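Late entry, written up from scratch paper. The run itself happened at the end of the previous shift, but nothing got recorded in the book at the time, so transcribing now.
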Amino acid sequence: MSATVQTNRSVLVGVDGSGRNASAVAWAAAEAASSSSHLVLVHDSGQGASAAGGRAMIHRAAAVVAKLDGDLRPSSQVVSTGAAQALRQAAAECSQGSEDPDHDEGRGSSLVVVGRRGAGGFTRLRLGSTARMLVHRAGPPMVVVPSGWDAAKVPDRAAIVVDISPADPADGCADGSESVADQEAALTLAMTRAERDDRPVVVILAWSVGAGEALEGRAISQVWSEYAARAEGELAERVTLLRAAYPGVEVLPVATDRHPVAALLDHAEGADLLVLPRGWRACSVVEYAQCPVAVV
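Output as recorded:
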């Protein structure tokens, strides 16, 4: 597989004209250029807002894209059905139109990009309504970009961090099947991007001891050692498979008994991208991560 991953997907970015949104437009433009994807600018004019105002915002965003990369030729959509719904629908339409035989979350699927905060007036909210709706609901892979993100400040070898920790029962994955599928989707996105951009990947597996284990009369140290060994063994198996499938990618395994959100946020400091499945963990992480967060 070549270092540059060629795709037929689209990168769709929500545009609202706010300063907070500029980082999302810049990230989407850089991703579209790096992945040879088509860039789509989507603006929700809202109820009662003028279509002319929406087109003006689209033109301003297109001008920003042109300054970043003159070769990009983005298309645009002005809608009034709500930004989250419009982005999901447009992504589904783009994905259905793809003829890429490798169509999946890592390569063929359309990618939705939004800013963590938009032009909304609730300044105390860390996560805007559009980003919150997209993170909470099933849909295409998406990236939430924090305000102030600047590609020039990302180190050349900044890592991509991916979470493969067990899902919480609250996420509706009691049998683990959905959890495994979501983890594989996250790994595919992380590894293909790392291969394309020549970056290392940090694979995090956060483990914990069930509350019932403390009631069986065994020494806590023994229980902890057993759980740690089990987690490290599982992670080693996953990493062996990843290194075989992506021999050019440096894979760094991390098994930890820390709270998964705390572990992810710490390892994401200075990272290029944090990737994780949808669920309560994603909802918590996107509010505080200082790097772009991909949710699949």
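The beta strands are 10-14, 38-44, 75-79, 111-115, 142-145, 160-163, 201-206, 251-256, 273-276, 293-295.
(Scratch paper discarded after transcription.)
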